């Protein structure tokens, strides 16, 4: 028999003992140098109806298409097969109509989730009808006809199966209209996937012609996670049905029209400081006509029309404005409402309401705030009272739009800001502009940059906020996630987010809030690559990124303390091709020459070897000219060799448009590399940007610069060992260095427990031993708590079948002192909680 020690490899044994290798580096934590307060608002959540996050997810309704509205087409939209096409609205930035191919998925099922089976007799049919609307806002009902005496089973699949559990109760509510005197009887059933009856209840139908509502409790005799809801009809005639709803009796806090308990508890466990609602792109709609209208999301759920939302399915909006505010109150979070500013999604159709209609949208936002905060005597707060909540709700933030930008947005933001602040000065208002956006408004409380990136990007961005200017604004990172090259979301991605968060937490004087996105995914309908929490009909699982979020929220110190970390770094290798472009700008380029590290030069022939990527490009008289019709224009120099360290020189002239020049280098594997954006951000700023898929985050360091039309500019970019230097007319303008850092640390002090909290990310395959010096502490307890998140393989992912593959492990460490060595495990996030008096 092997002993425990015989089973362990040497590094593993070292880790078991805490630290035994020689320290490779040193962390100095100076408790006397107090940094920013780490606000309780820092870690929150962002709900959006995407991936069936609400319907078929957090919202506990078990019937899909309960109101038979799922095939209703939004105003102005057109269906062709399995595609829905938006109307030809005008994009307010480009002036152009949507590309004719811009289409979204559409179900070809005429009556999604419902089916009719003839059990006896013949000729039975079901069809949608708007003959006798139950509610004017929900005009569609289902008409079931049995032309001759017979028996049918009308079934609903739920959201990829209904979770029915033995001895549990379910609340049924549905409506029938016995228009053509259906003569017969009905039976309500819950049926397992194998046909087993889990519940069977006869129902006496009212012979009345007008709508009649039934409600009652069903108790399940067995368990099946993939059950169906069935109404069996036996007889002859026609029956209308509408709003067929089934809820588990047990919901989160047992609220009516409530939330699925396990999912809500998984969110609550994150201790979110705030909840953002309703989105995301759904706020804007593909076009304005299918935006979320909050007023249609309150009141009796049977009267809510729902909406075909941006993510390709119709949502009931059962988890509406009231339910969102109630959830905030239930979990002790603050509410953040995102309003529409009269702009459709700019990444899709980008329509804008006429200026004279902006006041309608401002008033709509003010009404939403009144609903939440009014004293019960005002128009909309009275409705809140009618809906069962006399006291105000904890609404604290309003985001003015979602992912909007450009001159139209900037003006609208300022109008909304003034109108909301005049009535509700206590609210924090958020602009959707990213870094630097604070300069583009008259006044701004917070800006909201978003990042969906690769692990490399976040591993390289821990210092991003160290270099942001301080001023009269704060930052809310409303959406961020590693969602490229990480499968469904693996440990590497989670550690990259953890590394990024060390920079967020260290800069909490500026960054006051952050929320990962998207939050929820029904595994049967993933429409976004990586999402924090997965579930199916009966299981829920937090991915490794969820564990990171939780670890940061659970280990948030009261304030930061100065932490110096000296570690070995490696230069970044930049290698790839060169490209030229413009954003909403027409440019000419000439005299492009590359000087390689060995002194050789490669001169470009502007008429050959260029591959247009976007926009229209013409060559002539030694120049290459880029123009519209779209916003982006760029062209790749298809050289046989990829350039590493080199010096790139060229001449550029702007002929028309909004900004300046885009000069790409190190381009590889499609959209990956770097760009020098000269006169970007509304022709005001020049900075290097990383190109990471469709993301182009700014690399720290920028200068103010305005590009004039008609003038030839002499540009040079030196690329050397990860250092980029930009020269204009031979004068150095900007320099920045990219480092390959793989280990990250942030620390702070928790006043409530008297502990120093050190968070450390080791993003390498080696264990990493460092000495830790605690300076200016009066005492340190030897024994303390350690939480480690790691796994055998950095590519490991949690799944519903293996939800704890990447899971935090708690242990006790007996070696803390004013100076101690610690070995961090490969590919890990570690939290050290050290009892210390300071
Ligand atoms: O989180 C998914 C989407 O990403 C959000 O709807 C949108 O705001 C962003 O583009």
UniProtKB/TrEMBL annotation:
GO MF annotations in UniProt: alpha-L-arabinofuranosidase activity
GO term, biological process aspect, one: L-arabinose metabolic process
Signal peptide range: 1-25
Enzyme Commission number: 3.2.1.55
Reactions accelerated catalytically: Hydrolysis of terminal non-reducing alpha-L-arabinofuranoside residues in alpha-L-arabinosides
Keywords: Glycoprotein, Hydrolase, Signal
UniProt enzyme class: hydrolase
Domain spans labelled Alpha-L-arabinofuranosidase C-terminal: 478-828
InterPro entries: AL/BT2_dom, Alpha-L-AF_C, ASD1_cat, Galactose-bd-like_sf, GH, Glyco_hydro_b, Glycosyl_Hydrolase_51
PROSITE patterns named among the record's database cross-references: PROKAR_LIPOPROTEIN
Regions annotated as coiled coil: none
Pfam families named in the record: 3keto-disac_hyd, Alpha-L-AF_C, ASD1_dom
UniProt KW Signal keyword: yes
Sequence similarity: Belongs to the glycosyl hydrolase 51 family.
Protein name per its UniProtKB record: non-reducing end alpha-L-arabinofuranosidase
